[in-house]
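dumping the sequnces here before i forget
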Amino acid sequence: MKKVAALLFISALAVLLLYVVASMPPMGDPDNPTATHVIPRYLERAEEETHTVNVVTGVILNYRGYDTMGEVTVIFCALAAVLAVLGRERRGVIHGFVDRSEVPASVIVKTMVRFMVPFIILFSVYTILHGETSPGGGFQGGAVIGGSMIIFTTIFGLYESSRRIPLKVRAPLEGAAVMGFFLVGSLGLVGGGNFLTYAWPRVAQGLHPSLVVWLTVLVEVGIGLGGAMVLTSILFAMIREEEEIAPAS
Amino acid sequence: MRLLHNYHYAAAMLLFCLGLHTVIVRRNIIKKLIGLNIMETSVFFFYISLGYLEGGIAPIRTGGADPARMVNPIPQALILTGIVVAVSVTALALSMVILLYRQYGTLDVDRLMREEEPEAGESGKEG
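..and the predicted 3d for all of it:
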């Protein structure tokens, strides 16, 4: 009965949504309202205004810097909430986790993971540092580092991976994204401009473009490190067990 | 016909309905969370499709790329924000699921609802 009601409701919703889609402007048309108003200005003037070649990075870190700063705060709050719910490991104590998989990781898997993880981290460094000239950026690179940590932890266990990234390294770096934003934003205030602007009227008529690029890279590195450490800490908090969470079968 | 031409949008809408169906019908909380993630993904897909341009190129100004042919960068920037928020929501929800499982030993919503009342009464007595 409940399932039939749910199916009826969802069918009605689908018909309604498809009706709306049928009356939307055609996809990919250059005259769409989504592609006409502010977009041509961003695309044409982003390079001279933000000094970044990649327009998406320019939008994220310059035009909509406040938005991204709020987003970075959201990840930090998510980590704080996860740690409030699950608790954090005590400093200096290394927790193990019980491997309940039927088949232990074989030598081939372990060797491959040990071989691949440095290259994955190298790729993420490339992704972070080239965020303003090619597809990529801090969030993507940080997610790649977090993914490499997830692979490593699931294969080698929490003991090995929290020995490599101990709490005293992770804890200060978790706020790196927020701190990077705040630092660069405050530099804009010191220079006589507004918060998170890269034009410093008190220092010079306009900053040298290469300096603006370096500031952008600084924010990107902060976002990448902070995102990676937040993901790693969430993973460690979830995988850590003080008591057995599942009944031993 | 417009619906067939806008097939990306239509697919996003169907994916959204699929995710909503999973959230409503499934009894396992983890599967409900998977449905929530499917819904989020469909919204991202819809936004990115909104920025598509026929024969468009990536919005990166190298090698004298023509700005008039570039796809819309705003949805991409917005969705980057959205993905991070989705990851945060999923992480928080999963940690609460871990806590629920530790407390009750089940992830079935119906059984959780049934077991809720006596447990709440016991903890009330202790307090």
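Helices of chain B lie at 2-5, 7-25, 29-50, 73-104, 109-126.
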